[in-house]
Records
---
Amino acid sequence: MSLAIVHSRALVGVEAPAVTVEAHLANGLPSLTLVGLPEASVKESKDRVRSAILNSGFDFPPRRITLNLAPADLPKDGGRFDLAVALGILAASGQLPGDGLDGVECLGELALSGALRPVQGVLPAALAARAAGRTLIVPKANAEEASLASGLRVLAAEHLLELAAHFNGSAPLPTYQAQGLLRRTPPYPDLAEVQGQVAAKRALLIAAAGGHNLLFSGPPGTGKTLLASRLPGLLPPLDEAEALQVAAIHSVASHAPLDCWPQRPFRTPHHSASGPALVGGGSRPQPGEITLAHQGVLFLDELPEFDRKVLEVLREPLETGHIVIARARDKVRFPARFQLVAAMNPCPCGYLNDPNGRCRCTPEQVQRYRAKLSGPLLDRIDLHLTVARETTSLQAPPSAGQDSASVAAQVACARQRQLQRQGCANAVLDLPGLRQHCALPLDDQTWLEQACERLNLSLRAAHRLLKVARTLADLDEAATIGRAHLAEALQYRPAAG
């Protein structure tokens, strides 16, 4: 057999498009040609594969070898195709039976000795292989990650010789069994550890129940960061599809997807982070912080200290739930459905309106500080809360009913009502859903419109206010939005301008 076909997977964003590795042997001077838009790291695989085949005891065919990575218009990079190329050459030269390659897909980088080295982005390939109904062959170091795709048959190997024995039938590889690394996650920090701050805890409850964005403002040391870190523990657990999405993103980003699987991510980029660090980018686009926070929480501490241009890139993903990275050669779309929680001081020194008179900021300094945040960005934050300083009491007991377990139970009930009613959290309701599920009686609608006019709120802000009111009604297990829900929602929305 002079032609062999082996299936593999590329990596584009968080997708794993199929790649067919075709190996053809022809008469002529010995040579090896690799085509199919390979990047430099793929071109180098020729030498790795040659050494791996020879050091594994096989013959490298002294013929004219042509390797095609199809489709030809899809760029290929990395060492993930080494194993498929080696198996293709061995099958085309008759050293391995080619019929056993039909129902499998291969990923793995080869060492010069023939040992298999792990590659990144295995989980997206595993999900795609499962959808295609094929068995996936991976290095043993990637097997646990691939096994997250339930229902997929995974074969794990440490050396090229193990695969040769498997395809020859002398020592078939067993289906890999997960080693029990899943769901061993550390507990979330408890909300009961936060002293006082009843109003802030109420805002956290509302944010978690409806998936709303939240901004804490207050002097240093009032617990803004402490409160924000408790939000992931209040959110409902990820379902299997969401957990796999999160793990796939971290697999692509070279982070160990099992470290906190299946917990919701909590990302805290430093305020010196650049725009590409936040949204993703690079010549080969990689996910940024907003994608790594997908299905979780993105916490921006010291919000006005971020560069304004960096913050403005958040506006699109906050609305759409995804980000598109455009490059000259291609566009890559990354998911970015996250909950934004931000914290800021009221002025540059942080002590504006302090009763002890510690603030020395001029009105102009305060205005410049707050002007770093644009109106459109603040418009997209549903809940604005001032966190006041609590009295110092190091031994204060936790408030009853304000531990994470109690609050998470309320959040779960409210989210269940939302899923049964509209199939999504209130924060992501579209305009038709808003009209259907947030309808108001005529007198309440008139009252709300007048309040929005007095506060100079935009139509977007009014819609978000309605979503918060709908969440408050769900927490009260009310079928419709009442005047009290509207009034409380207005308390979390500052006047514009």
---
Amino acid sequence: MKLSSPDFENGKPLPQFCAYHGENRSPELKIEDVPQNTKSLALIMDDPDAPRGTWVHWVLWNIPAETRIIKKGEIPPGAVAGRNDFGNTQFDGPAPPSGIHRYYFRVYALDSSLALPKGSTKAELLKKMHGHVLASAELMGTFAASR
């Protein structure tokens, strides 16, 4: 599987429209080479450089298996949103308190849909996905704290 974005390159800065204190919109994501027997996709975006440990920005599951583009600022129809560490069930963008942080987008191809209620956490999603991941892909962007 492959995950990319027309809005930023792997390892490069995320666009300003993603900033939590800006437009707070997710970048467009392109998903390629999804295994043929995939039944659904899941997506997690988190920041491992947060002062109190990994900070979760976005959690989605039951994304339709045929999804190849997640449009800028949108959640794919049919997808279920989990609770991020801001306490929301939406995308919440970068807001690093200092320095440059890394933001990982990970997409997972699953062999089933998941019976998990809206607002479930990343930890609950990971537990439910266990044993169902066919493939995964990762894309990382950076973001610097405002001076």
---
Amino acid sequence: MEKLYTYLALGDSYTIGEALPLPESFPYQAVQLLRKEKVHIAPPEIIARTGWTTDELAAAVNAHTFLKHYDFVSLLIGVNNQYRGRSVEEYNMECGPLVERAVALAHGKPEHVFVLSIPDWGATPFAAGRNRETITSEIDQYNTMNRALAAQYKTQYIDITPGTREALGDPSLVASDDLHPSAAEYARWAQKLAEGIRAQLK
């Protein structure tokens, strides 16, 4: 009997695809891409909520009853830490254990964990009237940290941030709430994630 692969997505509004139907979120789009290539994979299990910071995601993870293991795990968290003005050092301290937990949930296989960079919401219409340069600079600092954590725990790293900055000149990449990515932007993330998963299946 063909193996059914499992995928766990941990995060915040970017993981649930805020302002869009759930099937247009990047975890669901990635699964659909893999299914088109005849990969037998279950719908993603998503532990994410709009507004969550690293400590709130950690609390939810600690309270949740998971499967024993997942074949693949993605983690995208931190934008709300930045939005609330929390320090990069605090983010680093709280995100490290989340990456470690993600590896444990992925059969202890770090190469099956995908840490995604934080999108730059400073490029969206929502940021009009705010200091876009400051937002961009802070997002870069956060992403320096999560990239270093991915290297430390030997996980995969998917840098989706440069693409999100194209929203400044391309409104089609932003959802109707003027803040979150559109299905077209999520499709680009899903493509990268599906490619990463496919590479591990070979």
